[in-house]
Design brief:
By secondary structure, the protein is of the alpha+beta class. The chain contains 11 helices and 21 strands. It is globular. Belongs to the GMC oxidoreductase family.
Length: 510
């Protein structure tokens, strides 16, 4: 029986609906409102509002349902396990999925036998309308000196970062100032010292967050990024729709083979411009499945090593800062990357309720989660390996991962631990079973390099500095995968800035 494949045309096809895809759509629609844009995502719509952040859903049961819907083929909630319990499991080498994955994500490899062999066991994705942007921490620090892309002019990148901050509604006053928060900053700055660059002292974390006159927060995700684009009659967004393959001929994408996962109906979309912003793992997967296989594709896989711990603050008579929100965070702080004085990235989360009640001597004490990251050397051999035969649960090429720490990487990890230990000593004491833990590879969720940009069409890059894939006139890639540098700061702001540059280039082409 022959299956009829319908055909349609559009000006722009965007594959992926996270912050990057949404940025492309918004800029193109703002500059060229008559441009027909179709955006697709393989995941479902998980709440009443398209692409809203889960933290904006006030009903806890509804929020949990939204997280479960994002978990790919994992259709039940993960066990209630505290961060400390996860860290303890990691320390004893227990790599079961319930200790590795987090609510709203699903492991790329979840079979226990495969996990033991996988060199990036905690690598996880979110499958939903809005992508990982529905679940992210909204942290948007600007990259430090050695994290900046050397072949993009500094002034040009700064302009793009400023535009990205506007699109994401980045602010440093998402949480109100209070006595405990100021004490946290004082301790961090005392440990950091004064040898830092301008504006790289410890400070409130820049967060992507709207805030009304009453101080209520609304966290940024695809809904707020798209903004008025959602009302544009020339914009169409489809959930549970997967792109199986890009059809190409003589350096041009001539069609995209898509499938509605609920009905099985297949369609061929012809577009003047195709943008793949599916994430740093599934973007190269789609290109590879389409026979677009430059040597660098899937290689140079990078993420920052991540050391985590919890401490009780030794602050006598500190006033409670209990929040009315279901979100236990009452403040997020940042120790910026600033080599050589502080060649790490510190993210500090102040909580008004301990996630580990049974291990805290006094649950009224203030709890601080300390996350410290460091750079990992960029290596061609750190890579995604695509299978020619085996398929994943969606019928796309199955992926495994090669990923190793070099001697220099191990030295950087040890140095980050030592700096973090100084902070711990200044704050108070570590919580029982919550001691410093190097989290398993993949835990940061900040995956980079798999579709990396470059200045020359050679074996070391997949696209140019505007995300245009080498040797293709109408194919662009976006997202963390295009970042060619080793970074340790949260990468979303940089990726949105790069998407801004790319989208403005596409507007010129259109």
């Amino acid at each position: 029986m022959l299956i009829k494949i319908t055909k349609m045309k559009t000006d722009v096809l965007i594959i992926g609906s996270g912050p990057i895809g949404a940025t492309y759509a918004r800029i193109i629609a703002e500059h060229k409102p008559a441009t027909k844009i179709v955006m697709i995502d393989l995941g479902p719509k998980i709440s009443d509002k398209i692409g809203q952040h889960v933290k904006n859903i006030t009903d806890l049961k509804t929020a949990e349902t939204a997280q479960i819907l994002s978990q790919g083929n994992k259709k039940e909630p993960y066990p209630m396990i505290s961060v400390a319990e996860r860290a303890a499991a990691v320390q004893r080498g227990d790599l079961r999925p319930e200790f590795l994955a987090r609510a709203g994500t699903h492991l790329v490899i979840d079979e226990i036998a495969d996990l033991q062999k996988n060199e990036m066991p905690a690598l996880s994705l979110s499958s939903n309308l809005g992508g990982m942007g529905v679940h992210w921490t909204c942290a948007c620090p600007r990259p430090g000196n050695d994290e900046r892309i050397p072949f993009i002019p500094a002034s040009e990148m700064d302009d793009a970062l400023t535009k990205a901050e506007e699109i994401l509604s980045v602010r440093q006053d998402a949480f109100p100032k209070n006595e405990v928060g100021q004490t946290i900053l004082n301790v961090l700055n005392q440990t950091l010292g004064t040898a830092h660059s301008t504006k790289r002292e410890a400070q409130a974390m820049p967060l992507a967050c709207g805030k009304d006159a009453d101080g209520n927060r609304y966290w940024t995700a695809t809904d707020t990024i798209l903004k008025d684009t959602l009302e544009n009659t020339n914009f169409e967004i489809r959930s549970e729709t997967i792109c199986r393959k890009l059809i190409h001929s003589e350096g041009k994408i001539t069609g995209a083979e898509i499938e509605d996962l609920t009905s099985g109906i297949k369609e061929m979309i012809e577009a003047k411009i195709v943008i793949v912003a599916a994430d740093a793992i599934r973007t190269p997967q789609l290109l590879w499945a389409s026979g677009i296989r430059p040597k660098a594709l899937g290689h140079y896989l990078n993420e920052h090593p991540f050391i985590f711990t919890f401490v009780e603050l030794n602050i006598p008579n500190a006033q409670s800062t209990t929040s009315k929100s279901h979100d236990p965070l009452t403040g997020v702080f940042w120790v910026p990357f600033d080599a050589p004085n502080h060649p790490f990235h510190g993210q500090i989360m102040h909580m008004d309720l301990s996630p580990m009640k049974t291990t805290v001597s006094d649950i009224s004490k203030h709890i601080v989660g300390l996350g410290w990251g460091c750079l990992k050397e960029v290596n061609f051999d750190d890579q995604i390996v695509f299978s020619e035969i085996e398929k994943d649960y969606l019928g796309m090429p199955k992926m495994t991962f090669k990923y190793k720490y070099s001697e220099n990487d191990l030295a950087s990890i040890e140095a980050a631990k030592q700096f973090q230990a100084k902070v711990i000593a200044s704050f108070g004491k570590e919580i029982e079973n919550g001691q410093q833990t190097l989290m398993p590879a993949g835990s940061s969720l900040h995956y980079e390099g798999t579709t990396r940009m470059g200045v020359e069409n050679n074996s070391e890059s997949v696209c140019d500095t505007f995300g245009q894939v080498w040797n293709f006139e109408n194919l662009f890639v976006g997202g963390n995968g295009v970042i060619p540098m080793a970074t340790t700061s949260n990468p979303t702001l940089t990726s949105v800035a790069l998407a801004v540059r790319s989208a403005e280039k596409i507007v010129e082409k259109l």
